[in-house]
Design a protein that fits this description.
Blueprint: E1 3-10, H1 25-29, H2 33-37, E2 42-48, H3 53-64, E3 70-80, E4 87-89, H4 99-102, E5 104-105, H5 106-113, E6 121-129, H6 131-139, E7 149-155, H7 167-177, H8 184-194, E8 203-207, H9 214-222, H10 226-244, H11 249-264, H12 268-284, H13 292-305, H14 311-327, H15 335-346
Parallel strand pairs: 1-2, 1-3, 3-6, 6-7
Antiparallel strand pairs: 3-4, 4-5, 7-8
């Protein structure tokens, strides 16, 4: 089956740049797509110093929806947003003060990959962190989820007035350009051997994907058995509600899974309604309106609402979405205005 490769290299363009991430793209571009993907054929998408986190999310979402194997290469730098102190991948216009709005939240990447079929996703990372983020990572390791096999390294700041090179990713490219396709763990170790002098100060990343119930869900979705997938997720949700309560993280996780399953089934009404419910439960249980899980639920409800074609259904859910957006405006400027404007267009004549 053809593979998909996403090459993402991003770093600020100004004085805050710690690594020349985009310098690795020509080297990776010289590698055959099949070698990058580990498949006989592959489609490659390249993002060099992107400006907009929403644009990156769109490309990431499209890549995650691919049916075949997916390999994501990420070179760049991490920083924390000042409000919630969550890790973000800095983009071209990012500064420490604007990270919340101009950088890609790392949990967006994790969330987009979470329902990928078991064993089909590889994540290769070459990241640098500023001093604050580096200290934070010692206590809170970077969470890339359980859906992907993860390999790579995170390096500390390179020193004052220095810009580092993505040497781990460069080593991967050189090895792959030789035409060999060793197992990923072996490829990772060979790349580490090439940059051995840097490793004492680096965090080495290696993690295997987890054989949990999501694998069965993914298999059912791939086979087009959407009703079966939803029934399975519903049973897990009901069990979580009985054991932990409807506002528990376990129950809300399965509610989120069912919202994603509705999206895969092409049912934006059900998906939108589910995401609205998740956001409401989280707010009612005391989550802050700018908590990542609340913002993500609101954004996903908004995205699915935009796909609803039936005017009456769109009006009904649009009223609820306005109420949610008044409390959770999100990171995208003009989200509330967008809903109100579409509701005006959907209003019945007279």
């Amino acid at each position: 089956m053809p593979g998909t490769v996403l090459l993402l290299a991003a770093a600020p363009l100004g004085r805050g740049r710690l690594v020349d991430a985009a310098s690795v793209l020509p080297v990776l571009g010289a590698v055959a797509p099949s070698a990058l993907a580990g498949t006989d054929t592959a489609h490659v998408v390249e993002l060099a110093d992107p400006l907009d986190p929403q644009g990156v999310l769109t490309r990431l979402r499209a890549a995650a929806a691919a049916s075949g194997p997916l390999t994501v290469y990420v070179a760049g730098q991490l920083l924390l947003d000042r409000r919630q102190r969550l890790p973000h991948l800095a983009l071209a216009r990012t500064t420490p003060a604007t990270a919340r709005y101009t950088a890609l939240p790392w949990h967006w990447l994790r969330d987009e990959l979470r329902l990928r079929p078991a064993g089909t996703t590889r994540l290769l990372l070459d990241l640098h962190a500023d001093a604050e983020t580096w200290t934070d990572l010692a206590e809170r390791p970077l969470d890339s989820g359980h859906a992907a096999v993860v390999h790579g390294r995170i390096a500390p700041p390179p020193g004052r007035r220095r810009v580092a090179e993505p040497t781990y990713m460069q080593a991967l490219a050189v090895l792959l350009r030789g035409g060999q396709r060793p197992p990923l763990a072996e490829l990772h170790q060979r790349a580490l051997d090439r940059i051995a002098g840097e490793l004492p100060s680096n965090l080495v990343l290696t993690a295997s994907a987890a054989g949990d119930p999501h694998a069965a869900l993914s298999a059912a979705v791939r086979a087009g058995r959407h009703a079966e997938a939803d029934r399975l997720a519903a049973r897990h949700q009901e069990a979580a509600v009985r054991e932990h309560g409807p506002a528990s993280e376990a129950a809300l996780h399965w509610a989120e899974v069912r919202a994603d399953l509705a999206m895969f089934a092409g049912d934006p009404v059900r998906s939108c309604r589910a995401w609205l419910g998740v956001a409401g439960f989280r707010l009612a249980s005391g989550h802050s309106p700018d908590a990542p899980a609340v913002e993500s639920a609101a954004d996903r409800a908004h995205h699915q609402w935009g796909r609803i074609e039936d005017p009456e259904r769109a009006r009904q859910l649009g009223v609820r979405l306005v109420e949610l957006r008044l409390r959770v405006p999100g990171r995208r400027e003009g989200a509330l205005s967008d809903v109100r404007a579409r509701l005006e267009r959907l209003a019945p004549p007279g």
